DNA sequence: GATGAATGAGCATTCATTCAT
DNA sequence: CATGAATGAATGCTCATTCAT
């Protein structure tokens, strides 16, 4: 039989993703506590009851948001490192610029701020995030630095420290933008900052 | 039998500071919304009613916390810049190391994370914080960079960009520590990082 | 074993009226401030939350009570005047007696006292009540008097003054009954008083 | 020794009266529940603690207000009746007009509305008020009517009913004025209404 | 599956009352 | 006597969660 499925049934599979997307938007903007499930539901085009059909409670929804949103982003970068040939500083720039790019458009880029705000209230989730995102991306950059050192392109520095020094500013600028965009009278362009940061970095990492 | 303890004491002068301190602790730890005034009161050794004796409502208490704790720290740094003589990179180090120092001990150092988390929910407060803290400290560092450029010590860069590049990593590391201290398996020493960051910076800012 | 009773039932249509009725009862008895929403809810057979499902807050509930209960009563009287034929004093009696009648039975008759008590605390509501009830009923009686004067049945008096003189005693007696029923050792019969008042009035209004 | 007493000691005797006066003002305006003791104290020029020096609690203060305010007013009228000679309708006018007069100026004239509002919450006080004011003034007028009937000046009516018919309108108009003065677009002059009411009455009471 | 009416625990806020000073 | 800091019970309101439909 090729009777088309009724409208709502076809939507069934899409529901969780739509709810997660709505929740991400609101959580990112207002934080966990200040977000009402009613609003999440409305934004997802369903009612409150439906949210509970797919998620046990607000906390589980929050966890799902983080889990679903966060992981895929890194895999792309990891393959980039894996397959890279050529100067390591070129790769560094590739990573930083594509990251800055994604930060400006991806809806998932609000997660950093959200996790920073809620980590202490969700220790289990914080651990997940740290493992899957923070440490992993730190490793990624540490890896690039290490290889650059091995190839003689960079001077000898602690790669993990360097990784922090590479990632922190970009995250921070993004987070600031999110938090204070309405009142900062001197907004930064994320990509311009990435470029500036990169220049500073490579000169700082070069042999003296 | 000794006289029974009085049920309470009049300590009008001490109360506000004690309440602010308690609020700072809890706000920093759990965020604004997740902090109950009952707990603030208990931690301050008073009852909820007393909190309302000194602060109009929860939001005003929040503002007071920010006002009282952040601003003084900056004033110290500003005089340091004013009175400085000698190499600008030395001043930069002085500022960064003393900042890192304070971050490790001062109870006020939780404010950054708090403001990041709550800014969008308290636009008015966010503006206050941006004006009084963010922009002001950015200016401070931009000033140091500018003078370093003028004296020929640093190469020509956009001072405001540089200021962001100087401040962001330290703030970010602190914020990360606060948020993920329980689950980060690779904790960082704030002062060591400050040193590392400084080295990278000065080499990055030097003429090539 | 029979099926356990459901914890609640969906009765969207019935709820608002039930809540208004409960609120009317309690407001009339204790006044606005002394009435707890918890009690209103209990009397309506729901919980506090449900009250807020239908009314934005306590004040809006109060307004709804007034709106729903008083206005309909007046409309009936207005049609009576419109359609009247015959002696105006007969109409006067009809109005007064039916009014007294309703006062004795209608649950809405507690509103006068309530409004008198709360008017200064709810200026907006007071205005609504004055426009929709006080002035309107005054006009109604002024109208009857005017026509009686035109027809030569009554002597020339200021109709608005007369209207006040007609309505005030009945309202006052009702209000007194409500307020002091428990302690007045000389209770009045409302309908008997209406009759007495009417007799006095028509003789007072007649040509000398 | 003729050393003058210290300032505050001289005030001691005046305090209760001042507090009662302040409380009367506020209770009359906002009702019992909506009046804060803090405001009473401020208006009386003392602090909250002082109120409790003279009155056990808010209820007792309320009772004192009613008791102190209410009684004296009637005594004057009673002597007037006692000593009257001449036409009873003249006395009636004297009573009504002086009453209207006092209503317009005496601060105590807000008590009626207050008692109407709070009677059911203060049954004991209601009884006191009914006995000392309501019934007593009703008797006063019933007395005048009775004597007028005996002297043949008025036709035979039930004097207690008539007393209600005499007093109710004046009280009602006053109460209305108080409650709705801010929004009534057709304000009445109390004395003009008293005159109108009197004219209606005497014609209504005259033999046909 | 989906809805949204109903729940009830939780919390901010108020204010009469107390009592150390 | 007088003050006003401190209390704590009371209550309006919110919103995550449940469940009858």
UniProtKB/TrEMBL annotation, chains A, B, C, D:
InterPro entries documented for this protein: Homeodomain-like_sf (IPR009057), HTH-type_TetR-like_transc_reg (IPR050109), HTH_TetR (IPR001647), Tet_transcr_reg_TetR-rel_C_sf (IPR036271), TetR_C_Proteobacteria (IPR039536)
Transmembrane segments: none
Keyword tags: DNA-binding, Transcription, Transcription regulation
DNA-binding region: 36-55
Record-linked Pfam families: TetR_C_7, TetR_N
Domain HTH tetR-type per the UniProt entry, residue ranges: 13-73
Protein name, UniProt field: TetR family transcriptional regulator
Source species: Chitinimonas prasina
Organism placement in taxonomy: Bacteria, Pseudomonadati, Pseudomonadota, Betaproteobacteria, Neisseriales
């Amino acid at each position: 039989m090729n009777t088309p499925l009724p409208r709502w049934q076809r939507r069934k599979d899409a529901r969780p993703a739509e709810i997660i997307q709505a929740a991400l938007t609101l959580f990112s903007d207002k934080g966990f506590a200040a977000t009402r499930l009613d609003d999440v539901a409305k934004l997802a085009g369903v009612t409150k009851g439906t949210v509970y059909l797919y998620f046990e409670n607000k906390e589980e929804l929050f966890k799902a948001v983080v889990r679903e949103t966060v992981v895929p982003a890194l895999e792309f970068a990891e393959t980039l490192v894996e397959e890279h040939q050529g100067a390591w500083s070129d790769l560094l720039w590739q990573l930083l610029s594509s990251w800055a790019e994604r930060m400006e458009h991806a809806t998932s880029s609000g997660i950093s701020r959200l996790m920073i705000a809620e980590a202490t209230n969700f220790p289990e989730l914080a651990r997940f995030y740290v493992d899957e995102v923070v440490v992993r991306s730190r490793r990624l950059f540490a890896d690039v630095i290490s290889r650059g050192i091995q190839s003689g392109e960079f001077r000898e520095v602690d790669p993990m420290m360097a990784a922090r020094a590479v990632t922190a500013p970009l995250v921070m600028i993004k987070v600031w933008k999110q938090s204070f965009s309405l009142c900062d009278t001197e907004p930064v362009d994320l990509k311009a900052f990435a470029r500036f940061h990169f220049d500073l970095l490579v000169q700082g990492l070069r042999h003296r």
